[in-house]
């Protein structure tokens, strides 16, 4: 007997049964999403045309979407259209505001971030090769590439680009960057030429090395630790005498007319703070905690060697450099002379420090306190008293010499002999006044 309900059941479609047997779900056969996203549907030419409408910062953000897009951007940057779009080369005048409201320096800062992100997964060596391939066509990025280097922003743009590219890299990677640039520019041979030749005999090469080191390796705005690292890499391969020459080439005074290094500036007469500030800042950088490879003795020896480049400096210029270099380096330098028994030299230097304080309007009590600190370095009362005697003798000798020059009528257009006598007399009076204030203050407090 058959059931009436079984005869009324509708037949199951064969297709549906087979789908159930296979266990597949609807939509499983659709293609997997592409790493290019919506850009998958665009031909490569259209994709690159779209990039022309994006700012460098936007392209940099796009490079982080996926490895596939990053690869496409790497290829785009090397194309002729990509190079024209990204490698701006109007370095000889400041550009008007762009779409993103940035100057050419900011443009290359953004470009550095773009290439940093695009090459993130590559080894350091391959990253450097790729960057060199991209930038090799820009002549103003080369040490001898620009015909008018003093009026060119090329090396500064290269510097900010490199600063962003290498930010956060470990020390070993930065060593590789330095070696790569050093070999690429053949800097070892060129530096050897300028440090072993007569000062000023290779003026153009001195200028090129100065601009390259300051613009590219010691880019303005860099962190102190980064600047200390690059400056150490530049100086350390050379003997101390060559380090001093190279330091003067990079940071010494230059002519306002043609930008060439002025070698006689420290020898011919007293100079101003502006001419010494670059050297003083470099010395402070090497003496600071950021420069781990330099000891205090290294820096003192470098300062000592610098004071005879290219010949012995006027003592007033030595004193001014030490004052600009800061209290720590100034005291360490003077204390080394005290420890080594060079009391006469130390006393003469102290007199010129007093003179610089008077001329440059520093507080004279600084000089008195520095003298007090130095006196504590001497191990015996006799050595301290001998130094103080030498100090007063130096004042007397210098005043006598200047007075004789004035009486003999040795005057130039600026009447410098009389002016120096005036400054030295005031300096001595103010120095001794501060000592009397200090002595009377001590006696009053003790009573």
Summary of the model, kept short:
65% of the residues lie in helices and 0% in strands. The protein has helices spanning 4-7, 14-22, 44-51, 56-62, 67-78, 80-86, 104-118, 124-135, 154-166, 171-184, 187-196, 203-217, 224-235, 240-251, 265-268, 273-287, 296-306, 315-325, 327-339, 343-359, 364-375, 381-407, 416-446. The model is unreliable at 1-8, 15-33 and 95-102 (pLDDT under 50).
CATH topology annotation of the domain at 341-439: Methane Monooxygenase Hydroxylase, Chain G, domain 1
Distance between the termini: 135 Å
CATH class of the domain at 341-439: Mainly Alpha
The CATH architecture name of the domain at 341-439 reads Up-down Bundle
Percent range for β-strand residues: under 5%
Describe the sheet with the most strands: none
- Number of separate strands: 0
Poorly predicted regions are 1-8, 15-33, 95-102
Overall residue-averaged pLDDT value: 88
How would you spell out the order of helices and strands?
HHHHHHHHHHHHHHHHHHHHHHH
What's the total helix number? Answer: 23
Structural class: mainly alpha
Question: Rg to the nearest angstrom?
Answer: 34 Å
Q: What overall geometry do the principal axes of the alpha carbons give?
A: elongated
Estimate the helix proportion, in percent.
55-70%
Biased composition (Basic residues): 14-23
Protein name: FBX47 protein
InterPro entries: ARM_FBXO47 (IPR056622), F-box-like_dom_sf (IPR036047), F-box_dom (IPR001810), FBXO47 (IPR038946)
Domain F-box: 36-86
């Amino acid at each position: 007997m058959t059931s009436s309900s079984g005869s009324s059941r509708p037949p199951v479609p064969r297709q549906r049964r087979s789908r159930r047997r296979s266990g597949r779900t609807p939509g499983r056969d659709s293609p997997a999403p592409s790493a290019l996203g919506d850009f998958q549907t665009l031909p490569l030419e259209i994709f690159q045309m779209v990039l022309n409408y994006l700012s460098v910062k936007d392209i940099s953000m796009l490079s982080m979407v996926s490895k596939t897009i990053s690869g496409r951007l790497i290829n785009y940057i090397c194309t002729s259209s990509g190079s024209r779009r990204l490698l701006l080369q109007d370095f000889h005048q400041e550009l008007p505001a762009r779409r993103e409201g940035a100057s050419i320096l900011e443009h290359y800062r953004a470009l550095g971030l773009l290439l940093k992100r695009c090459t993130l997964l590559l080894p350091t060596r391959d990253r450097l090769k790729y960057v060199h391939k991209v930038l090799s066509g820009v002549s103003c990025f080369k040490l001898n590439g620009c015909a008018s280097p003093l009026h060119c922003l090329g090396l500064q743009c290269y510097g900010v680009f490199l600063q962003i590219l290498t930010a956060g890299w470990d020390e070993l990677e930065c060593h590789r960057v330095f070696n790569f640039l050093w070999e690429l520019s053949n800097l070892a041979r060129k530096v050897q030429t300028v440090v072993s030749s007569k000062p000023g005999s290779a003026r153009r090469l001195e200028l090129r090395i100065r601009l390259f080191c300051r613009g590219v390796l010691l880019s303005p705005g860099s962190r102190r630790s980064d600047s200390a690292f690059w400056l150490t890499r530049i100086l350390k391969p050379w003997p101390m005498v060559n380090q001093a020459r190279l330091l003067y080439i990079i940071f010494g005074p230059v002519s306002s007319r043609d930008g060439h290094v002025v070698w006689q500036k420290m020898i011919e007469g007293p100079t101003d703070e502006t001419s010494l500030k670059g050297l003083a800042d470099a010395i402070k950088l090497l003496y600071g905690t950021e420069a781990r490879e330099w000891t205090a003795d290294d820096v003192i020896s470098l300062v000592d060697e610098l004071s005879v480049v290219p010949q012995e400096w006027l003592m007033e210029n030595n004193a001014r450099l030490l004052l600009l270099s800061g209290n720590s380096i100034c005291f360490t330098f003077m204390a080394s002379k005290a420890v080594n028994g060079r009391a006469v030299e130390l006393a003469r230097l102290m007199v010129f420090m007093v003179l610089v304080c008077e001329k440059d309007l520093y507080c004279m009590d600084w000089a008195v306190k520095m003298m007090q600190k130095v006196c504590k370095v001497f191990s015996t009362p006799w050595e301290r008293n001998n130094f103080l005697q030498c100090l007063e003798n130096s004042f007397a000798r210098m005043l006598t010499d200047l007075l004789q020059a004035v009486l003999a009528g040795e005057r130039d257009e600026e009447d410098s002999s009389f002016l120096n006598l005036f400054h030295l007399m005031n300096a001595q009076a103010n120095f001794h006044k501060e000592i009397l204030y200090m002595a009377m203050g001590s006696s009053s407090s003790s009573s």
